[in-house]
Each structure stands twice: as structure tokens, then as C-alpha cells.
């Protein structure tokens, strides 16, 4: 939330990257939200559902390395649960706009 007297009535839902494998919530979530709040925006960080990943570290790291090696060379596999999470977040922010003093 922006500091008192700084709010502009606008909201942003920050969707951190991670290729649906993880959520880069610190670097691409909270830091971005803090910067937006400093400018008067009410910023929400979405922690969305990711694709299922291997439990063992070696297999997980191999998958992440493959993902990053192919950046920009194709499209990510769809992840409908993550899209559903964003839709739910949009609805929540809209439904509670008055409570948070936001312009819907």
C-alpha cells in the first residue's frame, strides 16, 4: 500500500516471472510492488500456481536449465491454473476496491 497521502486510487497486480516453474517473488514481485507503492499505486503481488516440478534437486535444476536455455525460442507450456489465479486476483481487487479506496 502507498504511504498515507500518497495513494492515487490506482491498483496494479504484479505477476512475477518464473516460466511457470517457480515465482520470482522477491526480485520481480515484492521489489516491483514497493517501487509502485512509492509512486502512489496500491500493488498486489500474485503468487500463482506453478507447473508440477521434480522433487529431487538434480532433476529440477536440469529442467530449469533447459527452460532458460530456450528463452525466446518458443512459447511456454500453458498453465491454466496460473491464469485462473490471475482472474481470481482481478475479481478480488475489483470487488474490494471500495474497501481499499481504489477506482474500479
In short:
This protein is mainly α and 104 residues long. The chain is built from three helices and two strands; from the N terminus they run βαβαα.
Structural account:
The chain is mostly helical and 104 residues long. The chain has helices spanning 26-38, 57-69, 80-95; strands at 11-14, 42-45. The protein has a two-stranded parallel sheet with strand order 1-2. The mean pLDDT is 93.
What is the residue-mean pLDDT, rounded to a whole number? 93
Helix content: 40-55%
Radius of gyration, in Å, reads 16 Å
The largest pleated sheet is described as: 2 strands, parallel
How would you spell out the order of helices and strands? EHEHH
Helix count equals 3
- Strand order in the largest sheet: 1-2
Amino acid at each position: 500500500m502507498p504511504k498515507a497521502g500518497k495513494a492515487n486510487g490506482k491498483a496494479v497486480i504484479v505477476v512475477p516471472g518464473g516460466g511457470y516453474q517457480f515465482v520470482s517473488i522477491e526480485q520481480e514481485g515484492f521489489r516491483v510492488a514497493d517501487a509502485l507503492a512509492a509512486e502512489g499505486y496500491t500493488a498486489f503481488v500474485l503468487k500463482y500456481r506453478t507447473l508440477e516440478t521434480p522433487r529431487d534437486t538434480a532433476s529440477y535444476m536440469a529442467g530449469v536449465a533447459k527452460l532458460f536455455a530456450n528463452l525466446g525460442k518458443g512459447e511456454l507450456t500453458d498453465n491454466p491454473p496460473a491464469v485462473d489465479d490471475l482472474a481470481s486476483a482481478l475479481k478480488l481487487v475489483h470487488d474490494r476496491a471500495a474497501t481499499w479506496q481504489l477506482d474500479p
